[in-house]
Structure formats: structure tokens, C-alpha cells
Amino acid sequence: MQYCKTPLHFGLSAFLLIIASTISKSFGITSIPPSAAFQNVSTANSGFRVRVVQSDSRNELSVTIDRAEQQLAGTLVDPATQTPFTNVADLSAAGPDGYFTAPGVINYSTSAGGFAGNFTPDEPMPGLPGQTSDPDQSVANVAAEILAYLDLKAGNYRFGVNVADGFSASTRDIFGPPLVLGQSEHAGETLFDFAVSKDGFYPFRFVYVHGSGEGWIELFSVDAETDEKNLLNDPTDERSVKAYRLESSAAVVSFSPGINAEGVPANTSISAVIAHGPSNLDTNTIRLTLDGVGVAAAIVSGSDTNYVQASYQPSGALADGTHAASVVFGANPGELVTNQWSFNVGLPTEIKLSIASGANGLTISWIGGGTLQESSVVSGGWTNVDSSGSIVISPAAPARFYRVRPP
User: Fold this and answer.
1) 38 found inside a domain
2) Domain count within the chain
3) Confidence (pTM)
């Protein structure tokens, strides 16, 4: 069944008939909150950032995510010395911050040219072999952190990790705890499902843990209908979910209201989220302006301290029409960063409704405010469904009529 992908423009009352097809699979899905989506990640820097830590131990360390997190934090204690292990991974090709740049896919093996997992041959894992006192342990007792912003459209996803020995995959809202999507402490393949209701760039963190022997990790997506597997960020595969990395010292990754947003409520707050490293943002320099006037911004660090939000709540209602905002901050010494954006308050001349189809479902989006309603028959009665501006409809859902009720 084919679905129209062309945006449909309606007046203040809009109708849409969706006839849903049936799929043969159903599975539990973790919903990622729309507040986790970033809007402004540069697509000039494709790929991942990878940090590798290795402990020099003659014995195999426990293969647990807790051990990996302690290693990455530098707090894992060597029983022989009662002091934290030092990192003996080879960081000669890493950047000053200790991260390697991976512009392509994550399909690593501890032995160069390995043939583990679904995709072969494997690439050598950065940082290995390490500078261990025992040459036989040169690829043992490893932990790694893999970071990227994944470009996700509204819909359902199935991801997979094939690994030896263990992994954890998570995303997060900057003001909430990590949302773990998949995890295993055993060698093999793990699939996990999640859904997003809003297009955007979602910060993903993969933690890898390895004991001894050959280790590997590959990150991929799975087509829920065909079971076809595609490596994340494969430049040769148009079906591949693309990944991007933050290269600048500090950058705005999200604006609220969104860039060129329409139908913004008059009582909206204005905010910007800045991603930064541990020491390259001076929060005292952050300034917000609204329509050319400086405002008193509240500066709050997220639960992930690599993100800071500057926000302002106007004391009164904003007038209908276009408003301009900006955020300015000092990053590295001598570097002043300015970002400007605009948004429109008030209802547009018409409600704009669109539908897009994909392998994972149908996305209904609308601007101009209002509440999406549904009914099993065109004559009603109508039931309120959502007022966020975008929802995902499963292909397995029954046929329904939809309309937008004006605010």
C-alpha cells in the first residue's frame, strides 16, 4: 500500500483518512521523550567519538557494565596496589581529550581484520593493542565509550549490537537520568526496540566491556519487516541511520521555540541548550536576548553536565508575529559564539497538516496549534488524540479518520 508523502494544506478544520496496512510482527517498544531530541547538530562531522580505556591486569576483570563505567571514570581499583588502574591503551592517535574519531561505522574487533559478527571483515579497535606488561594481555580488560548524535525521524526502530563481551546502549533527556534501551553482559547479539515521536538528533551512548580473548562490537539497525541489518552510519547505504559527532569546543544543539517555529503560544519560554566539554565553556559569559534586548537568563546544568540550558520566561504575553532571539557565550579563550533564531507567535493563516510513511509507521504532523482528533466514521464522534504537533501511527492500527480541532 502506498501513502501520500506530499504535505497537505488545510483550513482551520482538517480531515485525513488513513487506511492502515497490517504487519506480521509486534514487539515491546521503549518511548524516548521528545525533549531528548536536539535540533541543531552540525551534519558536517559524520561519525562517532570513541574513548578506550584498558587496565593492566594479569587476571581477567569482571565482565560487567559496572566495571566498564568505573574504568571509564578512572575509579576502578587495582587489587594489587589498592590504587586506581592507569589507562594503558595506546592513545597516540586520539585527540587531546582522549577520544578517537570514527567517521564511518562501528564494526570493531580486537584483532585487525577479524571475522566476528554479521559484518566482515572487522576494523581494528582503536587504542589496541595496549601497553600491557604481559604481551598476551594486550587486548584484554578493555572498556570503551562510543558517543554520537543519531539522526532519527519520528517512528519505531529496532537496533542491534553484536558484541563480545558486553554492552549498554542509552540516550537521555539532559535533565533526566539515562534511558537504557539495551544491555547485555554476555557475548552474542542483542536486539532492542524504541520509538521517537519527534524528528531530531538524539544523543546516544554505547558502553563496551571486554574481558579476554577476541573481542568485538558492531552497531546496526534492523528492518522490523525484513530483518535486514544495516550498520549505523554506513555512507554506502541509504537505509543506514546516520550519526554525527560534536567537534567544536561548545555549540548550541537545541532551541526553544524551534527555529522558524510557527503557532508558538504567547506565554512561551525561550531557551537554548549548549553542549560543551569539561573546561571549554564559561557559563558566566552566557547571554540571552529577545527582540534585541538582553534578558535575565537562568543558567542550569543538566544531569549530564556536558549540557547547559539558558532559559528565560517573559513576564507577559508575547505579541503575535515574528520574534528574534539570540544566545551568546564564551567558549575557548578568545572565542565568542553567537547563535540567532526566529519564531512566530500566534496562529498562522491556516493549519498545515502532513503525513509521511515509512517502514516503521506513519507520522502525522501539524502546525498552527490545535488538537488531533480521531473517529472510526467520518460523521463522528471525535476523540482527542494528541496536541503536541506530531504523532506516530502503527501500520497495524485499524482504519481511522483524523482531523485537527482549532485551539
Assistant:
1) no
2) 3
3) 0.79
Q: Say whether both 24 and 94 belong to one domain.
A: no
Tell me if 182 sits within 8 A of 192, measured CB to CB: yes
| Residue 16: pLDDT over 70 | no
Are 288 and 151 in a shared domain? no
Looking at the fold, whether 120 and 217 belong to one and the same domain comes out as yes
Residue 361 lies in a domain: yes
**pLDDT mean over 47-75:** 96
Mean pLDDT of the chain, nearest integer: 87
In which domain, by residue range, is 388 found?
A: 8-33+349-405
Q: Assess contact for 182 and 132: CB atoms under 8 A.
A: no
Q: What is the rounded distance in angstroms from the CA atom of residue 48 to the CA atom of residue 108? A: 13
| Structural element, H or E, at residue 355 | strand 352-358
* Rounded CA Rg of the chain: 24
CA proximity to 144, closest of 220, 84, 205, 86? 205
Question: Percent of the chain scored above 90 by pLDDT?
Answer: 64
Q: Which of 209, 244, 279 is the last residue of a domain?
A: 244
The CA–CA distances, whole Å, from 78 to 61, 71, 81, 212 equal: 10, 11, 6, 17
